[in-house]
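ok trying again, last paste got cut off:
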Amino acid sequence: MITLRRLTKRYGDTVAVDGLTLDIEEGRVTGFLGPNGAGKSTTMRMVLGLDHPTAGEALIGGRPYAAIRHPLREVGALLDARALHPARSARGHLIAQARSNGIPTRRVDEVLETVGLAKVARRRAGAFSLGMHQRLGVAGALLGDPQVLVLDEPVNGLDPDGVRWVRELVRAQAAQGRTVLLSSHLMSEMQLTADQLVVIGRGRLLANTTMTDFLARSASASVRVGVPDPAERRTLTGHLASYDGVTAEPVGGEQDEIAVRGRTAEEVGDLAHGLGIRLHRLNGAPASLEQAYMELTAHSVEYGVAGNSAATGEPNRKARV
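nice, full thing came through this time. structure:
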């Protein structure tokens, strides 16, 4: 488990990370999202002991990273796939890492096979493409067979087959009980990969919830409910409308159907059951992750585009620079 307690990082007058408190649990893939400049990379660097917090703490298994004697055996990380000596071969790069943490050389060959680089293991890594660098970075993260994985944009530069491979790999790691913290700007892929979502903006926590709940509670999500009895339909609509943040309106062209926003299909079904209301249809239509994410972060974008209301949350404003 990764534990953040009031984690804060300041650079002069700039607050990069502002009091983050959360647990990143084992057995699931936690997606880490936020606009550029939100503090994601800084948070990951503090988890890995590369940056020192101004206040608060980041712990891995109850300890700071610096207190772990053989860190590669407990924590695998990929922050910058090109952070290696370009003259070394892929195998030589991993052997150097393995020896620094007492990891057998045979493990190097195993992870090279796992990431699909076995045939180019003796080529100079400096000549690799971005996608090959990413695969080598993932190999380094897996090298010590760690219980915790921290991966920053691991699918950047990969082809569709490589993207799917990373998705299946991290989900398999989580299924084996490992903790996986994964950042990416590819929303469609994150929606397929993550179980849990942590979203930050301007260094502050905006959301920490399951993927299912995050999508269901988006303003773009809706639940279609078919209630054949007009009186029961009015009763259900009235009860739903009494909750803050919930709307319930008739669906155009459908005599007995209402569209509900702000509640999941399960919650609407439970409410109808409690009221003794007979339903003919109950269908959830969740938002896409991109829609839900843009709604949540609209006012947290650090580097918006002039005139782009989706990016800035305010139409026709000048971009922040």
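cool. The chain has twelve helices and 13 strands. The first strand starts at residue 2 and ends at 11.
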